[in-house]
Amino acid sequence: MPPGEDSTPGPAASHPTGHPAYSQTLPREPRSAAVARRLVRTALTVWGLESLIEDATLVITELVSNAVDHGRLPSIRVIVSRSSANGIRLGVVDRSKTVPILRTHADEEQTRGRGLFLVDALTERWGTELYRWGKQVWAELGEGVA
Fold first, then answer.
1. Is the N-terminal amide bond of 20 cis, ω within 30° of 0?
2. Distance from C-alpha of 129 to C-alpha of 46, rounded to nearest angstrom
3. How far apart are CA 43 and CA 83, in angstroms?
4. Which of 21, 25, 49, 91 is deepest in the core (most CB within 10 A)?
5. What residues are paired with 127 via a beta bridge?
6. Three-state DSSP class for 48?
7. pTM above 0.85?
8. Are 44 and 89 in contact (CB under 8 A)?
9. Residue 93, φ and ψ in degrees, nearest 5
């Protein structure tokens, strides 16, 4: 250590954006959507972004539903991070490399397959990050958007 430098760590600093994020590994089961919604509500309440709760809980429900339907292993990971002072990023990680596709039209008789329409309508943007072992489907929301 150079002379005159103190080895005592400095105080911990909090940051208005970025990490820490909230995340949780959940069973790849439909009931995990309720746990994911609670995680989103908790994060947004702590961050003072309550105005995003309604849209964010709907979006995370759709992302979890897709992972439940298309994932390969028995678990998924839900991530809620703060991307900006007024924005969040929701993500669901699964072990499938199948990329979700926004259908250009939905049959009015269909009861499933419309979730990405909702995600697309309620978010600033959304997408997929592919990994060697699977993917993360993510969506970004911000106050005053939608």
1. yes
2. 27
3. 12
4. 91
5. 138
6. coil
7. no
8. no
9. -105, 135
Three-class SS state of 6: coil
Q: How far apart are CA 64 and CA 107, in angstroms?
A: 22
Residues in CB range of 25: below 8 A, 6 or more apart: 75, 76, 77
Cα 100 to chain center, whole Å?
Answer: 15
Other beta carbons within 10 Å of 15? 8
31: amino acid identity, one letter: R
H helices of 21-140, in order, are 32-46, 53-70, 115-122
